[in-house]
Specification:
Order of helices and strands: HHHHHHHHHHHEEHHHHHH
Largest sheet: 2 strands, antiparallel
Radius of gyration: 37 Å
Subcellular location: Cell membrane
Membrane topology: Multi-pass membrane protein
Organism: Labilithrix luteola
Distance between the termini: 64 Å
Structural class: mainly alpha
Oligomer: single chain
InterPro entries: DctQ
Helix content: 55-70%
Number of helices: 17
Domain Tripartite ATP-independent periplasmic transporters DctQ component: 183-265
Strand order of the largest sheet: 1-2
Length: 426
Amino acid sequence: MAEENEPKGGAGDEGKEKPEAAKGSKASSQTSAPSAQELDTPPAVSAVQVAEGRKAAWAAPFARLDRGWTRLDARLCAGVLVAEILTLVFWIAMKSLASTGRGGPGLVFRCLVTATVFGGVAHLITRRMDTGDPRRLKAQGINTAAVVLGGVLGATWGEAGTAYFGNLLAWMQNASILVFFGGASEVAKRLTLWLALLGASVATGQGKHINVDVVMRFLSPRARVPVAVLGWLAAALVCLCAMWGFFDHVAIADYRIAPTMPCPQDTTKRCNTPPSEKIDRVWSTTKKDLFLARRQISLDLKTLPKVLTGTPYNESLTPKEWNAWLREGNWEREFDPEAVKAMELPEDGSGGDYRAPAVTSYPGGSEQIHKLLIRELNFVVAFGLLVIALRFVLRSLLAIGGWVDVDPNAVHSDDELVHAHEEAAR
């Protein structure tokens, strides 16, 4: 009986499957057979593919350079900002610790440091407590009490550490490489200028610089590229002119290079000092300044361990050690040997038992060692303007190659987000 019913059931299933198969074949024929209008319509092209098609292959290396340059500038911005903050915090801490703890900034700093230490230790102890309301309130109370206790105990420091940190601060102010910069405040000022110029370089590379786009909105898309390139090249020229102006000012004011000199043809007349002469003299003087800075750093490495162990900084170097350090530096490569010889001290004690561990005079010259490297740091503005000019030129090349959109609304977009979308679309 079962065998007789089985063919019937199979025949019934076949009858059901045939209409479904017919429906499927009909639907597939409808979907697979395009109409004549669809055949005539070209496939849609995404905006990313259009942008990729407009990009010239010769500009691809410039695009990679631009992205790498922007990443470098961004990292330098972060590094300079952190360095500036650490410099100021360290200098304030040293001056406060060198001051008396019975009042003034020394007392305030010691209270803050002690309260921070006590509060941090209490937080480490109580952070593993349960998150329930009673225990959380208990942990907060412990942390608050620890901070208050630390602030109170900070007022009991008195003169503790004043002599030690006072000696260390005096060494930094009078006998270290900081003398060449004029102190930490001067270093912080130049770092601020450098940070501003790095930000300007990043803005230029991303097209976020200040621009007037009223004219660009009335131009056709094809005419925008030449106008934008012309404006960027003009901006680069202005930056280069300003760069030379700053360089010339530093050369005359800080390097004491005369703006005029006797004319080669007629020595009775005065002519402007040629740029090549200024550059040569700046370079030769900078080499000497950097040589003195390297020698001072080598001297700091000899005396800093003694100062850290509590030795008075003005008693950390004997005349014999000074003369040995002087002879091993190859000073004759940069300065007159007679001027270097005059810097040696008598070792019989007639000139004193100790020598200040610092380069205190310019061999054979009248320049002061104090703030000697400030004139080199003053070139940061000229260097920053040169970098911005190069970024304008690079952006012009990218615009010509189709790698930069000169649409007025494009300046409000995020270049990094656009690059990420393009990479994802690939």
